[in-house]
Amino acid sequence: ETGVTQTPRHLVMGMTNKKSLKCEQHLGHNAMYWYKQSAKKPLELMFVYSLEERVENNSVPSRFSPECPNSSHLFLHLHTLQPEDSALYLCASSQENPGVGEQYFGPGTRLTVT
Amino acid sequence: DAKTTQPPSMDCAEGRAANLPCNHSTISGNEYVYWYRQIHSQGPQYIIHGLKNNETNEMASLIITEDRKSSTLILPHATLRDTAVYYCIVSGLNYGGSQGNLIFGKGTKLSVKP
Predict the structure, then answer these.
(1) Percentage of residues of chain A with pLDDT beyond 90
(2) Confidence of residue A54 (pLDDT cuts 50, 70, 90)
(3) Separation between Cα atoms, residue B73 and residue B83, nearest integer Å
(4) 3-state class of A19 per DSSP?
(5) Which chain B residues have any C-beta within 8 angstroms of a chain A C-beta?
(6) Which of A16, A25, A29 is nearest to A83 (CA)?
(7) Closest Cα of chain A to B40: distance in Å?
């Protein structure tokens, strides 16, 4: 247990569906992150939030929409996804950003787009 | 792009020390060396980080060369549960660059064998 939880753990959705991924951290951290890990590719940083404000968006398509209502919760809203969006989506948190220190990752949501 | 170079794979006998090398010849003065590992289909797990001094914790030791251009992660007594992909990451507060974010490369796949 890392103190970062993600739900659901597995998700299958059609290309016309709308779904949301949820992340919650119980560590009192101020920064949260979304990463994408496609098969046989390195983890890719998608979004960074610091004190509930988005500070980085790494050219992610608009069909991915993040939301950070407070420093403990992070959502990733999904709509009209493509099959190539199938991947493991990982959430992480850290004490602060920018800053130096370790990130703690959740177990991920395995997403399959059909 | 990742700023580190690691061998793609390594084997280690159970109970022996696993020494995982990493080259980071372009590291700058305010960047830290981080090590994470990812067991199959799980979220990455923080192991250790350091700036210029050697570091040790309950999981591993980190040896950083005096010129800081390379480092070695040491798992003193590898077990089968240490089989994972190990990532060496350079990160810090870089003006004009990613502020403390992690850029994952392909890592080293460590296989611990009985």
Answers:
(1) 70
(2) confident
(3) 14
(4) strand
(5) 2, 32, 34, 41-46, 49, 91-93, 98-107
(6) A16
(7) 11
Best to test chain B binding among A30, A32, A105 (most B CBs inside 10 Å): A105
Q: Name the 3-class secondary structure at B80.
A: helix
Q: How far is B92 from chain A, CA to nearest CA, in Å?
A: 6
Q: Which residues of chain B have pLDDT under 70?
A: 1-2, 93-100
Tens digits of residue pLDDT in B33-43: 999 999 988 89
Q: Is A97's CB within 8 Å of B49's CB? A: no
Taking the CA atoms of chain A, what radius of gyration do you get in angstroms? 13
Euclidean distance between CA atoms B112 and B80, whole angstroms = 5
Cβ–Cβ gap A90/B43 under 8 Å: yes
Whole-number pLDDT of residue A102: 87
